[in-house]
Amino acid sequence: MKTGIRMAVAMVAAVSSGAMAAPFSVSSNDMRDGQPLAQQHWFAGFGCTGGNVSPQLAWKNAPAGTRSFAVTVRDPDAPTGSGWWHWTVVNIASSVFSLPAGAGDKNSATLPGGAVQGPQRFWLCGLRRRLSAGGR
């Protein structure tokens, strides 16, 4: 893992152009830039002893006209040739501005209504990650 996981919250909609009062931003109470994920967010298996809990995420200052959001967790350095998608959630309503910790649990009711989760792969042991907006 050279650069680690990238956590991105991307807008999934055509948005109108125009000036924004503040830049779109993403934050998490559970993650810090350049720091390993806490053990509760690691995968539990294949030698990892984590809790399989997806991290809390929040975002603000979406551009006017945003229709929905998507969250993607991708490891670009995974030894697959194309990276590894750990988690995807699409169709998050534009009125939603956060996901609680554990929202990725398929047995949890904490994913917002209408949101659709892709196949969950798993978190890895001790990843460092970068939090970015717009998939950068």
TrEMBL record:
Q: Which residues form the signal peptide?
A: 1-21
Q: Does the keyword Methyltransferase apply?
A: no
Query: Which top-rank group of organisms is this from?
Result: Bacteria
Q: Which InterPro entries match?
A: PEBP, PEBP-like_sf, YbhB_YbcL/LppC-like
KW Cytoplasm (keyword) present: no
* Keywords, comma-separated and alphabetical: Signal
Pfam families with a match to the protein in the record? PBP
> Where do the TM regions start and end?
none
Question: By what name is this protein known?
Answer: Phosphatidylethanolamine-binding protein
Q: Look up and give the organism this protein is from.
A: Klebsiella pneumoniae
| Gene field | ybcL
